[in-house]
Amino acid sequence: MVAVAAAYAWWAAGLRPFTWPVLAAVVVAGIAAVALGTRRRRVAGDDPDGAMVWAVLLALLAGWELAAYFQAPRADHPTLSSLANEVLDWRPARAVAFLVWAAVGVDLARR
Asked: Would you say the C-alpha torsion 6, 9, 13, 14 has a positive or negative sign?
């Protein structure tokens, strides 16, 4: 299963960005992740501390993004998205990011 997912991620990472084929590849992977995740659902449990950690983390990341966006020069204050673009220009990094995205989708669908 992991080898199939890795091969699919490598193939999808090689597609030209912002085209219909890559959109279809992402949609198919998303549907597969939800289908796999809902097949074995976890027992529901409340985790308010976990939700608070995620909320704080997202607020910090959003604050960094906004602060960097409004500061100049941009080369001295890169945004998270510009840093990610530099890394994701490399096909192996895109493939790993695709796999991580799919794994997070499976985990979220299990909840």
From this structure: positive
